[in-house]
Amino acid sequence: MAKRKRHTARPTGRPIVPAYTDVDIDAYTQMPDGRKLQKTVFGLTEEQVGRIKAGYVCIKCLEDHDAPFPDNCAVCSFPMRERQTEEFRKDFRGNIRFGPSTTIEEEYAIAEEKLQRDAYDRATKLGLILPKPSIVVPTVKGT
Ligand SMILES: [Zn+2]
């Protein structure tokens, strides 16, 4: 009987460092004693997600390996070959925003625009600015 081939891989020593981590508000792990443990979501780049999908990076501890889908993660022994794809399907959220839904620059731009609009509205009400006249294009009548 043929011996089952072992799939092994060694850590490359370059585990993925997520750009952001956050508490997952949509999912939690129910403990046997009833406690709810909140899960952590990792903010990853497209490339990092690609490495996980390709089986090089452990979905549990984000360790990077030199070969795809080893039987077990070299660091946390998560059964990557057997469960990584399934876990990925379950856990991957696609593109979600972390933190405030806009960047600081966007917040400033929005605030700035609102200030200008408010100022314009006030000035219009006070009669300081006349509402923009519509542009009339004179037409030549007849021939
Ligand atoms: Zn691992």
Explained architecture:
With 143 residues, this protein is of the alpha+beta class. It has 2 domains: 20-91, no CATH class; 100-143, no CATH class. 29% of the residues lie in helices and 13% in strands. It has helices at 46-53, 80-91, 104-125, and strands at 20-30, 36-43. The radius of gyration is 28 Å and the shape is elongated. The model has no long low-confidence stretch (mean pLDDT 80). Zinc ion (ZN) is lined by residues 58, 60-61, 63, 73, 75-76, 78.
Please write out the topology.
Elements: E1 20-30, E2 36-43, H1 46-53, H2 80-91, H3 104-125
Antiparallel strand pairs: 1-2
Bound molecules: zinc ion (ZN).
Zinc ion binds at residues 58, 60-61, 63, 73, 75-76, 78.
Short account of what is shown:
By secondary structure, this protein is of the alpha+beta class.
| Helix percentage | 25-40%
Small-molecule binders: zinc ion
Instruction: Sketch the major β-sheet.
Output: 2 strands, antiparallel
Cα separation of the termini: 99 Å
Number of separate helices: 3
**Principal-axes shape call:** elongated
Order of helices and strands: EEHHH
- Low-confidence runs: none
Domain tally: 2
Structural class comes to alpha+beta
Strand order of the largest sheet: 1-2
Using only CA atoms, what is the Rg? 28 Å
- Give the rounded overall mean pLDDT: 80
| Proportion of beta-strand residues | 5-15%
Number of strand segments:
2
